[in-house]
């Protein structure tokens, strides 16, 4: 950290989530103080040094104590017990400005949510919208099938993905929250390569040291499998569209991670090595 990059205190909302934890870890690694917001501090389980505070984005005034002394805030766009789109963005931003917050990152929720729209419309803070593609962590959904039967059962196995390591999302957020030059930016965040389902399975097999069979399902078989897993019709429709007609943004590598953080994006091979034990029988 240079003299111009002073240690700062950052409030991370959604801190117990997949991305939130990575934002916390990256900020700590970079020498910043972290205040983690959660509805249930007793279950937070953060590293030593993280200040855990209670708050709820559906109740903006509950954030007032958490905003004291912070220079940046990481926001998510859903909240409450049922993760409905937050309607409280304007009030959250009003309180943040009043507390002296200078920078805000918001994790894109897959659509134009009210909170993200409020952030984009706010000229009182330097905001950055983070737009990651498919998470590498989605491969964890295959763990049970791999451990139990040594196989992955998926439709559309030739589909392409520029999937991103969650730690790289955290790294981009940490830089945007603590350094100049990222205000008003929309950052699509990808990994460094485009992979098919077969590529992913082969990578996991190499990491765990044992072969994995790839069984291609028909669309009808996939729907039945997802329904059996308890997915709603809305989720099933989303999966059919995302997998059967992956948008260009989800299958195109961009160099955001390297441009923002100064180092290459992590590969799926790295992710697989980190999680190899999850795909091995006990």
Automatic annotation (TrEMBL):
SUPFAM superfamilies named in the record = NAD(P)-binding Rossmann-fold domains
Span of domain NAD(P)-binding: 14-108
Xref: InterPro entries = Ergot_Alk_Oxidoreductase, NAD(P)-bd_dom, NAD(P)-bd_dom_sf
Q: Which PANTHER family match?
A: PRESTALK A DIFFERENTIATION PROTEIN A, PTHR43162
What is this protein identified as?
A: SDR family oxidoreductase
State the species of origin.
Streptomyces coerulescens
Q: What is the lineage of its organism?
A: Bacteria, Bacillati, Actinomycetota, Actinomycetes, Kitasatosporales
């Amino acid at each position: 950290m240079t003299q111009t990059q002073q240690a700062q205190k950052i409030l991370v909302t959604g801190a117990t989530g997949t991305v939130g934890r990575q934002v916390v870890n990256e900020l700590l690694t970079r020498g910043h103080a972290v205040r983690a917001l959660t509805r249930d501090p007793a279950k937070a389980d953060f590293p030593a040094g993280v200040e855990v505070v209670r708050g709820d984005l559906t109740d903006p005034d509950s954030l007032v104590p958490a905003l004291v002394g912070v220079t940046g805030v990481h926001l998510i766009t859903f909240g409450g017990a049922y993760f409905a789109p937050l309607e409280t963005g304007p009030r959250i931003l009003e309180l943040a400005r009043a507390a002296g917050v200078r920078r805000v990152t918001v994790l894109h929720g897959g659509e134009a949510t009210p909170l993200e729209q409020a952030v984009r419309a706010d000229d009182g803070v330097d905001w950055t919208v983070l737009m990651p593609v498919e998470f590498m962590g989605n491969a964890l959904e295959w763990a049970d099938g791999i451990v139990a039967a040594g196989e992955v059962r998926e439709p559309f196995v030739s589909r392409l993905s520029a999937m991103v390591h969650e730690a790289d999302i955290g790294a981009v957020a940490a830089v945007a929250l603590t350094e100049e030059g990222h205000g008003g930016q929309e950052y699509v965040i990808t990994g460094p390569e485009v992979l098919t389902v077969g590529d992913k399975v082969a990578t996991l097999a190499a990491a765990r040291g044992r072969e994995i069979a790839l069984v291609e399902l028909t669309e009808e078989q996939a729907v039945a499998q997802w329904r059996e897993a308890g997915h709603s019709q809305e989720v099933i429709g989303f999966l059919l569209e995302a997998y059967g007609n992956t948008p260009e943004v989800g299958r195109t590598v961009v160099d955001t991670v390297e441009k923002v953080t100064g180092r290459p994006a992590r590969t799926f091979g790295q992710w697989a090595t980190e999680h190899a034990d999850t795909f091995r029988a006990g």
